[in-house]
Write a structure and sequence with these properties.
single chain, 259 residues, elongated, mainly alpha, 12 helices
Amino acid sequence: MAYNVFYTSIPVLVSVLDKDLSEETVMQHPQILFYCQAGRLLNPSTFAGWFGRSLFHAIVVFVISIHAYAYDKSEMEEISMVALSGCIWLQAFVVTMETNSFTILQLVAIWGNLAFFYVINWIFSALPSSGMYTIMFRLCRQPSYWIAVFLMVAAGMGPVLAIKYFRYTYRPSKINTLQQAERLGGPILSFGTIEPQPRSIEKEVSTLSITQPEDRNPVSEPLLSDSPNSTRSFGAGTPFDFFQSQSRLSLSRHTRKDN
């Protein structure tokens, strides 16, 4: 039953190639990294939104699948295949909606994966011993199957697209502002106009740093206790002075051996 992992994980894995902004924009506005480091993009509310969207899609797929075949004498495998088809179609549209920079590999992974879903299930439906014999062939000939898939996509993506449009238009983030400037092709705004409080972001980033105990040396020391550097710290000196002292120590050792 793990065969469906192949066509459910590929679009998600390929999404790692996606870029929110181009390298040129990031180089022009390096302060945007503070925005990312402060947890504005990946935080508990972001994961809660993903979980809520998944739960909403699960409810849509379940309700439409059950009601579309409520009065038909259908097998449980047919209804489950209708629900699985709705999940695959919704996944393709969600990944497409969340992708910012499309490449050939991403397009093939998203929509080629959808075609691969039907091909592999047609193959399993042609095998009498697979438990899905002729199921996919019967479903693809039924208009109710395609109507149910269309309703799943429309009901599942309609509210999601409306929320995304509202947030992008009326409550855009700093990333959205730079993305809009890139897509319009006009001059990119200065970072001061889109980041009115850079100090607050730096403060948020500083709170994310790991606090160390007071008795711990901030200098990274070797693991070996018998190393000559294990008890040495920078102190008031500079790293350059430290390396100079180390070079003098090694030089004196070599001269002693020569003598």
